[in-house]
Amino acid sequence: MICLIGVAALLAPCVSRAQLDDPASGSSSKPKLTAPKPEPAAPAKQAPPVAKPTPVAPSAPKVERPKRPATAPLVEPEMVAVQGGSFKMGNADGLKNEKDLHDVTVSSFQISKKEVTQKLWLAVMGNYPSEHEACDDCPVERVSWNDVQTFISKLNEKTKKQYRLPTEAEWEFAARGGGNHTDAKYSGSNTADEVGWTKENGGGTTHPCAQKKPNALGIYDMTGNVWEWCSDFYDGNYYKSSPPMDPKGPANGSYKVFRGGGFDQDATTAGCTYRNASIPDVPMAHVGFRLCR
Questions:
Q1: Rounded Cα–Cα distance for residues 171 and 169 (Å)
Q2: Would the pTM of this model clear 0.85, i.e. be above it?
Q3: What is the domain count for the chain?
């Protein structure tokens, strides 16, 4: 028998050598020693799922509008000879600024068959000012009266000719058909749709020149498409004191005349006698011009 020495011995029972060598043979009062249960192993970390690449659909080819040329050859406008003559300018049934009918005589002149196109502007100025773009044969617009003077100066330098804007009297005489003029409301017809593009048929944009019927002189688009600058200053009472021979408008003023109506205006404004005006340094998307000399 072996006994533990010390304070612990007073409390612990003695055990035999055989019990030490064979714990199973020990006293039933001895507590059974239980091996500690192993802690459950932590679950193995799983790698995050690999995202499968999303197939990328082939991108649609980029649609690019064809680039407009940076320059254009200068082709001078075709001109129509207008034999001088006399007519009664104005409209007794019109608005206040056109009511004063008066006799006017104009000398012979030439006027362009078509409005100045975007292509011709490019040839002279080297740019595209128009709001309604991508149409070389459409009338140029969004050009102020002052811009037009720069254009004419450059054109005259290139051609060695004397182009200019028509006077208001020349414009109305040509729009009415010159010496063979009639009392048709529009330039070549009493029906606006036959001879021009206005709000009623214009679709909100300009159109290539010379698509409608010309007037008696073979001039196109003096009704609608775009308004056309004239050389005159504007005065609503000018007809009361206008000289009878080649009137050129007041000597000064704040506004310049334009005539003929436009694609975005009612046909009632596109008559041969209807007068309009604006500040000369303001470009507008419905105002262009035609040439005279």
A1: 5
A2: no
A3: 1
